[in-house]
Amino acid sequence: MSISKKITLSEDQIPTHWYNIVADMTTKPLPPLHPGTKEPIGPEMLMPLFPMELIKQEVSTEKYVEIPEEVREIYKIWRPTPMFRATGLEKALDTPAKIYYKYEGVSPAGSHKPNTAVPQVYYNKMEGVKRITTETGAGQWGSALSFACGLFDIECDVYMVKVSYEGKPYRKIMMNTWGGNVFPSPSMRTEAGRKILAEDPNSPGSLGIAISEAVEMALTDESTKYALGSVLNHVLMHQTIIGEEALLQMEKAGDYPDVVIAPFGGGSNFAGIAFPFLRKNLEGTHQTRCVAVEPASCPKLTRGVFRYDLGDSVGMTPLLPMYTLGHNFVPAPIHAGGLRYHGAGAIVSQLLNDKQIEAYSIKQLECFEAGLLFARTEGIIPAPEATHAIAQVIREAEQAKAEGKEKVILFNLCGHGHFDMTSYEQYLAGNLVEHEVTQEEILDSLAQLDTPTIG
Amino acid sequence: MSISKKITLSEDQIPTHWYNIVADMTTKPLPPLHPGTKEPIGPEMLMPLFPMELIKQEVSTEKYVEIPEEVREIYKIWRPTPMFRATGLEKALDTPAKIYYKYEGVSPAGSHKPNTAVPQVYYNKMEGVKRITTETGAGQWGSALSFACGLFDIECDVYMVKVSYEGKPYRKIMMNTWGGNVFPSPSMRTEAGRKILAEDPNSPGSLGIAISEAVEMALTDESTKYALGSVLNHVLMHQTIIGEEALLQMEKAGDYPDVVIAPFGGGSNFAGIAFPFLRKNLEGTHQTRCVAVEPASCPKLTRGVFRYDLGDSVGMTPLLPMYTLGHNFVPAPIHAGGLRYHGAGAIVSQLLNDKQIEAYSIKQLECFEAGLLFARTEGIIPAPEATHAIAQVIREAEQAKAEGKEKVILFNLCGHGHFDMTSYEQYLAGNLVEHEVTQEEILDSLAQLDTPTIG
């Protein structure tokens, strides 16, 4: 083995700025609309929910935004994250492709989510916020926010989808260990929760309900703000630190990716690794394919429509331009919980509509097969979300082999699977089933939309 | 924050040699004895259990042993591991002490154990071994060996103490994911297991029984060998890569530790970080206190005796010179499962007897309190084993404050607690109880020993 397995950066190479792709987009993302009036909303409408600095970032058109010194100091706990050449996987696939991956699972919360949780909590702290509320499904985001709130000594209330709260007790305890309060949603703490429970005392909850509860708590208490782990522009921008580091690491490795691949839920993972490479595309110096991979059970990018839709089920959020399956779409209970969201963020949706990026959907058995091969050849057990990227990597590597091409592939290994062991157990026992959504289900869900169309 | 939080090394700074402290010891460790004849055994007696290269290392008196290139390549997946300045913890303690920690939880298996699992599997592979057996209690060692066997494509059979097998299902699945086979022990697969089950079909198992089963499988099949995760000389030597890196990192930080602290189970964790600093003591250039911390419920170093004892309960292993509580001692079911072993390795025992190192015991509530403070100030959730070191660090830092002294403290954060969340849950719920062993229990256990005494 003469190939360098790990490509590292020194601490002083941690990027000083996040990249705001909006500055370079030929077609800018459409504005959010008020859910009632359907008119574009101004930044001031977001003030009850977010601190001013994050609102400024949300609407910023500056190309780079400086990372505060205190945030960079905390990033140093796990950043720069390593990049690896997947020598073991390459050998197993017998492919001429060179496969690289950026590994974000080294963060204390085990995923890329702290990249945005830390600055979000920092800006809230600077503006005197005492408590932050959020929702979480699988638990990656709630863990990251609890971790960050622990470091800044801010209260953290996490509304966790009840079925996950009951099925993933370790996630809850992890959040508690960092000082986070975790409530099964729907709860009796909010108007939204009480309403749902009155209708159905046994409601298993959903991400849409949990968002409504977290948003309501922020709207009804002045010292409380709300935080979101994906979809929004500022969240995606914070994640670009992944791709900025990856650019430096690819240079160090003496390669440049022909294709960059990431799993897709709301867009933060994909944006994080892909946007800095897209900058090079947009600047005209390179041409890299940027590929988002979604589960076949929640295929908004490949089978949804591009129109305005709500971020939650209840209608407490603005209308956003997105590729969507409809805000009432309920994805099957697949194990990649972080990818079970009905819509995509505004920026990513615009880029897809403009054909600047590609999207594919893959079924979960192929993903787990890929994840297992990866664990046994590279040693790291990937989160179920991350296996979607790996499955696509294997497709690309096999195509390279068929074509006899040396292709450089880079993907984002966004997190480890330490809290997803039951998923692997079910896969190993042969108990996982496929969940491919039918065209009828999608059309049914979309038919319920009365939101503005686009173009 | 102007202090550098993380002290890293580049890949080419990974040490090329392990350090064998036996070469420098003024009193060499006593030889192992045959359990029947009580006579010293030669290396050839170990051949049914271990590959020749590991036996050579077990009895080596060379000061340094070269790390094979292929092992170093795999080490690169997670090594060099980071060292951190515990700025958050220091601030919370308001101490003049400077606290550093080496973090081994970044390995794919989440602890320091792969440092020896990888070379052990490598030497077995080189000598044509097809299957490796081992025992595991809490699961850290079984996970590490499964991980390493996965990379070298060797079969791995893990005998897991039945009560852990049932109580820690995620650990089992983790091993399965890497391809390891996991059997609850006692099992019907071995003579030893069948005997135990015939006497007590509901036996919860013990580490002693699991060792007997794993050893029996190796003794009865020529293509199968046995592997141990602590206690033995070669295992401790492999772990010295931790301290060798730490020496370089302390130099980079411009400090040198006044005290080095590690949790103590069988000795591999402590030896790993402390032996390279002890070398500097033995060479006369430095004087660092090396402190082992054991649970109050299993206090072999602080309350046991120094004499020959068996490594297992059934008597299938050689007699080793050790600080021991007696091989029939059953520690209380504390959450730091990795520290529930009745004896200490031969080298560490000799060093303690010669007053070259110090030992303290701490109760588990103080340890979990320390672990929680650490999680909330440093962001990393420590394994219950590691919290023992943190509790001692806090004692030392508070003493430094009381004395107004700037003291440099280094400890080994040997692993994360991702698979120990139920322990934190019980602590947070106030359900953890103390388990301090009585003098009577210790004397009772020691009274059963008919093994040779020392000195």
UniProtKB/TrEMBL annotation, chains A, B:
Gene3D superfamilies: 3.40.50.1100. It catalyses: (1S,2R)-1-C-(indol-3-yl)glycerol 3-phosphate + L-serine = D-glyceraldehyde 3-phosphate + L-tryptophan + H2O. It holds the Pfam family PALP. Pathway: Amino-acid biosynthesis; L-tryptophan biosynthesis; L-tryptophan from chorismate: step 5/5. Its EC number is 4.2.1.20. Residues 78-415 form the Tryptophan synthase beta chain-like PALP domain. Its cofactor is pyridoxal 5'-phosphate. Belongs to the TrpB family. PANTHER family: TRYPTOPHAN SYNTHASE, TRYPTOPHAN SYNTHASE-RELATED. This is Tryptophan synthase beta chain. It comes from Arundinibacter roseus.
